[in-house]
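User: What would this chain look like folded?
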Amino acid sequence: MSGPHDPAATAMRRPLACPFFLPIGPRMRIATKRPARLLLPGRALLGIAAAFLLCAAGPAPQPGAVWTIQGENDAITTTRGGSDRFYTNGLRLGWTFGTDGVPDAVAEASRTVLGDGITRISINVNHQIYTPADIRRTPPDPRDRPLAGYLAGTFSVLHDTANSRNFVAVTVGLTGPAALGRLVQNGWHELIRIPANNGWGAQLPSEPQLQLLTVRTWRIGLSRAGGLEADMLPSLTAGVGTVRGYVQGGFILRLGQGLDRDFGVARIRPGVTGGDAFVASPGLAWYVFGGLSSQVEARDLFLYGTLLQSSPRVGRNWLLGAIESGVAVI
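Assistant: Here's the prediction, encoded as structure tokens.
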């Protein structure tokens, strides 16, 4: 989001348990009107009652935990000369507890605020690197974006209904030499035998960071034909903190099979992400996807610099947009 392109993303997600789950499709809808007289045969009444109970039940519990290893790097890009520029690398290690690992107080609070559904807790460690356009210039161009390493841990709560996902997160992190940006980038460059980045002496200074985030994603079924399904995933995001202050809206269109398994591909934020949790059930699910998103941004640490100390910075760009596409297999 911070640069003119998005890096390619890869992720591995593995359920530690694979029980059988009753699939509840995203297109289950019940509409009722109150006519003057309504006479239905007993079989129809039983069918409506069963459908109502299934919808009210929401998604089935998910006892299996999920671990995630994810990498994003601009070495794979369609932009000419796009490697080692702007947002250049992201790494993430995540663990999402099964529904049986959530404290009762957390699950009850989620149901009270967000309604019936299932709740999970996720813990992530995230590392990101941002660089100017020319990493060989020393000192870096003061008109270009500053160098920054960012190391952070995130605690989040996810609450799923049959057709929506709510996400609330708290992130604590730091910038500066302790964030290990120089070590990760130049260590990798040395390993693959390409020139080092000589500008790390001018990186953002050491400073603690705090970020709060809330996201809601809806899953709207569009069609089902010939064994294929299509849906749309609109989402709204709001973030406030020392790292970013922004509001983001977007949508993803998907075509494939087993779309009720998840809420879209997991990505490192601030990209639009469906999160790591998914339904572990037998059989293969897959889809192709594409989408658009836009941000209205009040603050970006990696452009505007640190709050408590003087640091390199560039001018404000308050309106951002992104396009994404890809293929997912579960």
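The chain has a mean pLDDT of 80. If you want, I can go into more detail on any region.
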